[in-house]
Amino acid sequence: MRHSKRTRLTGEDINNALRVRNVDPLYGFSLNDNSKFQRITNNQHDLFYVEDDEWEFESVISSAMPRVPTDVSFSAHWLAVEGVQPAIPHNPTPPPPLEEESKMETRKKYAPKNDDLQVKAGLPVTNNVEIKPLVQHVLSMEHQIFYEKVTKAMKSEESRDSKTKVAVLNNLEHDTGLAQLLPYFIQFICEQIGIHVRKNFNVLEPMLKMAEALINNKSLYLEPYLHNLMPAILTCVVRRKLGLSMGEKHWSLRELAARILAKICDRYGGSYNTLQPRITRNLMSCFMDTSKSLYTHYGCIVAMGALGREVIRTILVPNLKTYGDLLSTYANDLDPIKREAAARCYNTIVDMLAKLKETVDPLIDIELQKTPIDDLREKLEDSIGKYFADGVLRQIGDEHVIMAIINS
């Protein structure tokens, strides 16, 4: 700086001095706005100091206070979904292929100007058009062959293919490389359930087991496809008739669909806070609808039971008194099919009430000692009605369960 007769010290001056002393220079300190130094002489030596700006107290006091900085916040976005980068502003735009670049340059070169274009009167003209690139899944030949084999095996109704179905379901549950095929499997399941729910009962069970296997696969991310999968599963739970002729298997099919429904709520209920309340509300609406069949009621009952003791305690128990009046009308019906359906609903509800024993306060024994059995029976009838109270006393008879029902 002295040899250059400058009053500003630069980062290059420091680096030159370090190079003279055979020391590695400093990197990253070459600023454009360098400090300006003043020189004074003290005892025949030059002393350099940084010249500071002078500020008056009045101007500092009268100046406005700076704005308070905002708190640090974080936002999340997906870098990739099922191996495909979403086209959002946070992610970098992939460069177009060389062929597309040449085509775009040719179009720009020969594109007509806006003044040369003739627009009909009354039509708005805008240049702010956002064109989003299409994101498509690209399946390898191996994935395509695997998909065809899986779908063919799951649609087959021949008994000789039962071992193949077991192997396919085991593969779907444990294979970690099915991310690219997941949307196609979900679409296949929903389409097959929609087609065969009225015609062919035998296809519904393999489709539900296929959905259950995909849900159990911990390496798959099903959240983007829940809105497609949930209606298909709910249909198997609450639909009045499954297939052309319903045999004994439709009861187990509704139980399977209810179990899958509970797994979805258990796994994804934390991410979607409204998932289980919405499902419970739909089930309760069908359960209390007197125009629905007993098959629909049974599906709602087993589904609410699969959702856990809290749903039984807060949703099912308060409505048992009203539902008992409806169900008792089918107990002596002339149609044996309706009597069987009513008995299944009745026994299933009574068995579910036994689960409430684990919700009882340990100190309830003191209250039980002071309460006569007749008073417990009266309170139980007031809570769930005489129809279900008789079943609880006859089939369960546990005083702790009775107190849990009364306190619900």
TrEMBL record:
One of its GO terms (cellular component) is SAGA complex. Residues 135-321 form the TAF6 C-terminal HEAT repeat domain. It holds the Pfam family TAF6_C. It is found in: Nucleus. Its main location: nucleus. The keyword Signal does not apply. GO terms for biological process: RNA polymerase II preinitiation complex assembly. Residues 85-104 are annotated as: Disordered. It comes from the Eukaryota. Keywords: Nucleus, Transcription, Transcription regulation. One of its GO terms (molecular function) is RNA polymerase II general transcription initiation factor activity. Belongs to the TAF6 family. This is TAF6 C-terminal HEAT repeat domain-containing protein. The lineage of its organism: Eukaryota, Fungi, Fungi incertae sedis, Mucoromycota, Glomeromycotina.
